Amino acid sequence: MTLKYRKIYPSIHNDAKFRDLSDDGQNIFMFVLTHPHLTMLGAMRATIGGLAEEKGWPRGRLSKALREALSKGMLKADWDASFLWAPNFLKYNKPESPNVVKSWGAALTYLPECKLQDELRQQVKVFVEALPKAFAEALPKAFRQPFGNQEQEQEQEQEQEQEQEQEKKKSARILLEQGKKDFEAARIIYPGDTRGLDTEFEYFCKNYKNWREILPLLKPAIEAQIKWAERTREAGRFVRSWKQFKSWLLNKYWELEQKDVEPTDKRTATASGAAEARDPGDGSNIDWVALKAKSEAAKQAAGDS
Question: Which of 21, 98, 233, 253 has the smallest number of Cβ neighbours within 10 A?
């Protein structure tokens, strides 16, 4: 969509860049600004050959004249896409109403897609946002969407994030499955009562956020405590039954340290010796009433002798 009228200020002749152009340079620059195919965005579809034919100039002459304006940033071109743009056009041809801004969406369809079109759309968006609110609200969606490579980059970033998220979930699932196997290895050798694997593993993970660090300690602790209990019984000392595995976990019995148990005759077990027999299952295995009776009996036996 083109404009029937454009604003070209007489002060253009005071512009240093314009004055530095050769006669051909000034001529071709004015030719572009007044070209009938120039859209209201200040850009158009154009080729060097086409413009040369319109002007009746040799291709080399027109190309040289255009390079002057291009080198000063007065024009921008992507000849591969046949895109030509005067980036300061809107500065001197501001929209007179929000309806004009709405019509820019149609003008955009006349322009080839390329990086320069992305740059133009971005410039238009920034330009309109500086105008009254009604103008900004009238800006077509095409100027608000991601631009060219930016859109592709965003899509790639989203895909990468999704892949990374899936990879994290996969790794977490593998770790969880392996953790469950290690937990079961400790659970099946536990001498006390146990419940279902899923129930107890869920309880364990829920109560200990650092369960991955604790997990390697469980089986060795249970094995050590089983051996300790066996040695304690062999030494003739009292060992109560193991608590439920859930209670063992709750009380952190994997942290218990057992003392070496020396073989002791049951008949001469003393209170101090029995006190060493701490149950790895609950930590409160000492029957103090029975212990006191045994101690008194031992003292009496010693006195009778």
Answer: 233
